[in-house]
Amino acid sequence: MKNAKWIAGSVAGLLLTSLPLLAADSTTRFYARSGSKMRMEGTSNIHDWQVESPLIGGWMEVGPGFPTEPGQAATPGKMEVRAEPFVMVRSLKSLEKDGKPYSDKMDEVMYEHLKAADDPHARIIYRLTEMVLKEAAKGKDDPYAFDTKGDLVVAGVTNQISMPVNVLPMGDKKLKITGTVTVKMTDFKVEPPAPAIAMGMIKTGDAVKLIFEWIVAPRTPAATK
Questions:
Q1: What angle do CA 168, 169, 175 make, to 5 degrees?
Q2: Residue 18, φ and ψ in degrees, nearest 5
Q3: d(Cα 153, Cα 138) in Å, to the nearest integer?
Q4: Which candidate, 53, 55, 51, 75, places its Cα nearest to that of 64?
Q5: Which tens digits make up the pLDDT trace of 46-97?
Q6: Distance CA 179, CA 167 (A)
Q7: C-beta atoms surrounding 50 within 10 Å
Q8: Element (H, E) at 12
Q9: How far apart are CA 51 and CA 49, in angstroms?
Q10: Strand, coil or helix: what is 66?
Q11: Is the pLDDT reported for residue 210 higher than 50?
Q12: pLDDT digits (tens, 9 = 90+) for 133-154
């Protein structure tokens, strides 16, 4: 009888300890890849402006049912997803409309207002808290449409934002994630820059549009010798 109880207890213990492993095995972790970019667009009393970073870092973890292959069947509803992409502030550069560099002076003013010199504020960070599939892809070349919520951290200030996001599986579990959202600088305690120039002062608008394309994929196992 004692042996039977010991065996039963051991089996129960093994089952309990294996639950976290099963949960971990059911998720897929993605990491940032090249080809990503984030763009910020705003206005001023002289002309519209834009800055862009060719780098988005971070990671994303998805649970069962998340579409990772083109045309995969997916049921609308809340998905098991975690993500934390980020952009280094100093990777942002001002551009002309044709993509040519615009102004080093504007870049320095932007870095100052975003507190890029302070290590805790050197990154713009987004922490995804909710992702709901609204519409599955209509075909293998079409994206999946999501509604999302998350915490955006800029210059050390955190605000919750909501935005529509599209996820396009590109094959081999590589994903292109795109979205657009408009925020106000003052909501993050960032004073809209007003640099003085020879002709007077440039006054920038408070609203800024953020546009991003984030490419992610699982890490490939290291080749064994």
A1: 85
A2: -85, -15
A3: 34
A4: 75
A5: 889 999 999 999 999 999 999 999 999 999 999 999 999 999 999 999 999 8
A6: 9
A7: 17
A8: helix 2-25
A9: 7
A10: coil
A11: yes
A12: 999 999 999 999 999 999 999 9
Q: How confident is the model at residue 7 (pLDDT cuts 50, 70, 90)?
A: very low
Q: How many residues does the chain have?
A: 225
Higher pLDDT, 16 or 206: 206
Q: Residue 150 CA to chain centroid, in angstroms?
A: 9
Structural contact between residues 219 and 31, judged by C-beta atoms closer than 8 angstroms: yes
End-to-end CA distance of the chain: 51
Q: Which domains does the chain have, with CATH numbers?
A: 28-217 (2.40.128.110)
CA gap 49, 44 in Å, rounded: 7
State how beta strands 77-78 and 123-135 pair.
antiparallel
